[in-house]
Amino acid sequence: MDSSSKKVSIFKRRKFRSEEKKDMISGYLYIAPFFIIFALIGLYPALFSIYLAFQKWNGFSPMTFNGLANFELVLTDPLFWKSVYNTIVMGIMGTAPQLIVGLILAYLLNMAFLKFKSYFRITIFMPYLTSMVAVALIFSVLFSNHESSLANYVLTNFFGLDPIAWAASEWGTKIAISLMVFWRWVGYNTIIYLAGIQSIPNDLYEAATIDGANRIQQLRYITIPMMKPFIILTVFTSTVGAMQLFSEPTVFLGADAFTRDEAMTIVMYLYRDAFRLQSFGTASATAIILLILITIFAVINLRLTQGFGKKRGRSK
Amino acid sequence: MKRMKKLVVLGLASLLALTLAACSDKDAEKSSGTSGDKEITLDFWTFGATGYEELAKEYEKENPNVKIKVKSSETADHHDALFTSLSAGSGAPDIAMLEIDQFDRFKVAQDRFENLYDLGANDVKDQYLDWKWKSGENVDGDFLFGLPTDIGPKALYYRIDLFEQAGLPTDPDEVASLISTPEAFEEAGIKVKEETGMPFVDSIEMAFRAYLDAAETAYLTPDNELNLGEDSEVKKAYDYAVHLNELGIVGKYEMWSPEWANAVNKGEFAAELGAGWLKGWMEGNAPEAVGKWRVATLPTDFAANWGGSYIAVPSETEYAQEAYDFIEWLVSPENQLKSFQSHGLFPSAQSVYDMDEFKTNEDEFFGGQATAPVFAEAAQDIAGIGYKGEKYFPIHNEILNALKNVQNNGSDPEEEWEAAIKRAEDLMKR
């Protein structure tokens, strides 16, 4: 009796304590907090919003099934299409220059003869670390409607142009917000590109120099093709980021953010539905439409950037 | 597969642990409530500058077993947080302040609040202005959401320097008797424009609100139907604003913008249809205008309320009666006088209006005029507050955008009106 039970326990313990199992359990324990929190505040709301998209709900009263009516309401709303247009326009104005300038800046920062490298690297990255609210507040002072705001002062005194209502005109708002997005994110992309450039082996350049390629040719035929994975990464994240533009325009416009349509983005439209109109159904429907739009744009952009890399490769 | 199972078990176990922890927390709280004299804590959410922190301390002294935790936040954040917690069914405070314009979006959730009539509110009903009390009730009048705090009776703020230049009287009583009808209001505006070149009213929003705030039925009927026909009160307010704009007496300032603040300071418009709380803002933010503004009673057609709050008890609380006792004390006439003196919250208890400390409170900023009685008179002129409804503000913004387009782009008022109605109808479908 005694000996048999001992045997079993030894057997069990051995099985339980095998190194592999222990590793596995501690591994799961380490990642568990993330998964639990993700399930609670990431996955659950995401799934719930899909359910909500087919309901009419004001936050308090019981939900009623609404079929596809929410989608119809959103898709036939001119303001929704205006917000799609705004998002795309600001996305192009804010992110496309960012990627090009980021690449150039990274190239310059990597030049051998540049002095104070770390100083420049840090200053370029600084805007990314600055609090969003502070950035938007400062920009809303620089670009205010008033004739004497700094932006208008420069326009009128140095260029002899008319002052612009930066927070209340169709293009004024878009330009001001795009500039803000550009200023804030260009450093982030520059750092990624810089890391990419530094990962390119030096002997490629040496070989090119021996073959007589100049700096521009080296940039075109070595740097950019080798940077392809990094460019794809930044294009992907920037596209998703641009489609989700929200805090910049909201803080920039302050009280007018949800009443005017010049800079209303898709996410602002969604937020307005949920928290200004108490219409969580249409807000969720908008979220699903946004998901589809983001997927489409991300795929288009990926195709474009991959194609671009391939062509370069072939022409070589 | 086996790994998957392990993961699921692990996840479930942790979830269980979390929920158990949460439960035990609540149990502890509950048991402390049942045992008589034990100390209880009331969470109280407020917004803006109310000075309720100091009053709460006073109450704690008188009632040693009650602790009040006051949390004050910005108006929009406060209401959004409250909305979320009430909607989720947990996390709401024991006591919450509600702004009158936000109130109606909470009234659809009657089951999430305590009926203050069940806690003894009938006994204090007569202390407060009737119209203020009524809008704290539900549509049927058998459920009371909140006790009244402050109100925002509207009056005519005017610049004496511009009035003088235009050949108008500057004494508040004379101004009130001269500008006693909407027509006289308009004539005074034309005079100011002709003589000084300055606009009379600061913005088209204020011109619109002249009639709108006084409307018995604004955008929505109590059945939540849009009320925007040709002979509706909103249309009348709209037409009046368009008319004043055509006369050229409406300025292009936007309230609270830096340009507007500058104009208040420098006297770049002559009149503002402002509520009592504007006074406090002016005193703090228009240092160059000391002695230049006065306050007079508005024409009866424009007598209206703008702003003010209530204090409610969400039904999640464990201590409904204790919470009610505190707020009944907090908004008593004596304490309303204190809130008025320290933070300019205009009292809704009419007995305060007869108190000497209230009547003789002279305002340096207004050249020594005792403005409180003007607002008190305005408060008693108010016929009632119209039903607002959940979607009051979104609709208001649509109509306001139409008016701004008329003013800024010179577009056709009728076309803008039609377009705004279409957008409003669209909002109502959501």
Protein described:
- The complex is a heterodimer of chains A (316) and B (430).
- Chain A has 316 residues and is an all-alpha fold.
- Chain A folds into 2 domains: 2-52, no CATH class; 72-315, MetI-like fold.
- Helix content of chain A is 77%, strand content 1%.
- Chain A contains 14 helices and 2 strands; from the N terminus they run ααββαααααααααααα.
- Chain A has a two-stranded antiparallel ribbon.
- In chain A, strand 1 (55-56) and strand 2 (64-65) form a beta hairpin.
- In chain A, helix 13 (266-276) runs antiparallel to helix 14.
- Chain A is globular.
- Residues 312-316 of chain A have low confidence and may be disordered.
- With 430 residues, chain B is of the alpha/beta class.
- Chain B has 2 domains: 41-151 and 308-356, D-Maltodextrin-Binding Protein, domain 2; 152-305 and 383-428, Periplasmic binding protein-like II (D-Maltodextrin-Binding Protein, domain 2, 3-Layer(aba) Sandwich), CATH 3.40.190.
- Chain B is 49% helix and 12% strand.
- Chain B contains 18 helices and 7 strands.
- Chain B has helices at 2-34, 52-62, 75-88, 100-107, 130-134, 160-165, 172-178, 182-196, 204-212, 233-246, 258-266, 278-285, 320-330, 333-343, 356-359, 372-381, 392-409, 413-428; strands at 40-47, 66-73, 95-99, 146-159, 271-275, 293-296, 305-312.
- In chain B, strands 1, 2, 3, 4, 5, 6 and 7 form a 7-stranded mixed sheet that branches.
- In chain B, strand 1 (40-47), helix 2 (52-62) and strand 2 form a beta-alpha-beta unit.
- Chain B is globular.
- The chains are: A mainly alpha (316), B alpha/beta (430).
- The A-B interface holds A 24-25, 28-29, 32, 35-36, 39, 58-61, 73, 77, 79, 144-146, 255, 258-260, 273, 275-279, 281-282 and B 3, 6-7, 10-11, 14-15, 18, 80, 83, 86-87, 105, 108-109, 112, 256-259, 390-391, 393-394, 397, 400-401, 423, 426-427, 429-430.
